[in-house]
Amino acid sequence: MKILGVIPARYASSRFPGKPLVMINGKSMVQRVYEQAVQCDKLAKVIVATDDMAIFNHVSLFGGNVMMTSESHISGTGRCNEVVVNLRTAGEDYDYVINIQGDEPFIEPEQIGQVAACFNHPQTQLATLVKKISSAEELASQHVVKAVVDKQGYAMFFSRSVIPYVRGKNQQEWLLATTFYKHIGIYGYQAAVLGKIVNLPVSELELAESLEQLRWLDHGYRIMTKLTDYESIAIDTPADLLKITNKSGTFDQ
Fold first, then answer.
1. Cross-strand bridge partners of residue 83
2. Residue 230 and residue 227: Cα distance in Å, rounded?
3. Helix (H, G, I), strand (E, B), or coil: what is residue 196?
């Protein structure tokens, strides 16, 4: 089983342009993600996929594997597939691909390994992580994507709304009444499946929730989930940098 790790690193983020190059205590965000990813011994190779020469040159400078990809991709999934196609053309084949978020500088190598472990089951097409929700604030937030999974661990649905709805209980009692899960945004793909899902038409459910994975479910693909206790901090905006620094200006992790 040969697994490729891909870190999509796009320059033109609407909320934080140049985000991969932001410095965090002396190292760029993309370098921190890369150094965490290469610690996962399940990955045969880790490569940064970018559309920007400044990022390309920066990754090359710190010794990372990097590939230029098209500016036209609207998601990391498409960028991952382009890397796979280019490597295959060069004679380098991989069975599985893990899409590692480029804005999580403290991602745990164990998280990546948990996604990789889903592919110990040959029938797994797609994989991701979920974590138990423990606070009412997370449960209520539309920014926290909730997941419902079946007894075998396959995702049934993802939503920004609270799912499931607990009938007959006051909402303050819901966390005591049942288990809620949130989605942790890391994806694994069978390489062959990845090549197919990038060509799927956008689905109505995907548009409604603005969640790409609903397109895959809508078209009949199955997503295996793994329960994790790990959760890293995503840096979506400049203000999010405050989450990883304390009052003295050094970081907490």
1. none
2. 9
3. helix
- The answer to whether residue 246 sits within a structural domain is no
How is 16-66 classified by DSSP, letter by letter? STTGGG-EETTEEHHHHHHHHHTT-TT-SEEEEEES-HHHHHHHHHTT--E
Residue 37 domain flag = yes
Q: Which residue has the higher pLDDT, 36 or 16?
A: 36
Residue 143 covered by a domain: yes
Is residue 111 within 8 Å of 118, Cβ to Cβ? Answer: no
Distances (CA, A) of 166 to 97, 104, 169, 177, 209: 37, 33, 6, 8, 21
The distance between the two most distant Cα atoms of the chain, rounded to a whole number of Å, is 59
H or E element in which residue 31 lies: helix 29-37
Average pLDDT in the chain: 92
| Domain of residue 187, CATH code | 3.90.550.10
Total structural domains within the chain: 1
pLDDT tens digits, residue range 207-224? 999 999 999 999 999 999
List C-alpha distances in Å: 233 to 33, 123, 140, 185: 11, 31, 19, 11
Q: For residue 131, what are the domain limits?
A: 3-231
Angle value at C-alpha 203, between 198 and 205, nearest 5 degrees: 125
- Write down the pLDDT at residue 14: 58
Cα 61 → chain centroid: 25
